[in-house]
Write a structure and sequence with these properties.
Elements (H helix, E strand, L loop, with lengths): L4 H21 L8 E3 L5 H8 L6 H5 L4 E3 L7 H9 E8 L11 H16 L2 E8 L5 E4 L2 E2 L4 E7 L2 E7 H4 L15 E5 L2 E5 L4
Parallel strand pairs: 3-4, 6-9
Antiparallel strand pairs: 1-2, 4-5, 5-8, 7-8, 9-10
């Protein structure tokens, strides 16, 4: 591979996922409502690790992607980014077998740390060469066809194929609003909180 090739692949992957999320969360109206966070979340993560007082800007910039249009224009977009911290990972090879080890363990650890810092749920998008793109979430998403459930440090990571995940929001049947799930109901995104 030529020098810088892996970075170019990573950047193209970020743009692809940002576009898919944008279209999905704006009902196919905007392709540019989601974009990379300031320094892809790194700056925000470092500031939180240093113990700086959390600001809304720091929380909004945690993760790799964020909404870049003012709140109030698309409810699903606002709800999604208020609920989830989005991480993107593109590596040459990722071992998905049990027992978990290597890159996937590092990804899960990073996501769990961000979840503790931001109080947002996990939305991890993972890609490796010549493999389909996967999404891991910390809550069950009824609209997607879950492939598997990984348990790591007593936390569940629900795994979906990206291609199966971005369904037309109006086609999702979420009539049984299961606590602890995320779904669309009549075209609007809902997070069904667990009863505490």
């Amino acid at each position: 591979m030529k020098k810088g090739g892996s970075k170019n692949k990573g950047n193209a992957f970020e743009r692809e996922v940002a576009k898919k999320l944008s279209l999905w969360l704006t009902d196919n109206v905007l392709s540019d409502a989601v974009w990379r966070s300031d320094t892809s979340g790194g700056r925000s993560t470092l500031r939180i690790k240093k113990g700086e007082k959390k600001t809304q800007n720091m929380i909004d910039n945690a993760g790799d992607l964020k909404s870049v249009i003012p709140q109030g224009q698309y409810d699903n977009l606002d709800r999604f980014f208020n609920q989830f911290c989005v991480e993107l990972k593109f590596y040459k090879e990722i071992n998905m077998r049990i027992p978990l080890k290597g890159h996937l363990v590092k990804f899960f650890d990073q996501c769990l740390q961000q979840q503790a810092q931001t109080q947002k749920d996990i939305f991890l998008v993972v890609k490796s060469n010549r493999k389909k793109t996967l999404i891991f979430t910390s809550i069950y998403i009824k609209c997607g066809n879950r492939l598997s459930l990984y348990i790591y440090k007593d936390k569940g990571f629900h795994c979906y194929l990206l291609d199966d995940f971005f369904v037309d929001t109006k086609d999702c049947d979420c009539s049984s609003r299961i606590p602890g799930t995320f779904c669309f109901l009549d075209g609007s995104l809902y997070v069904n909180k667990t009863d505490n």
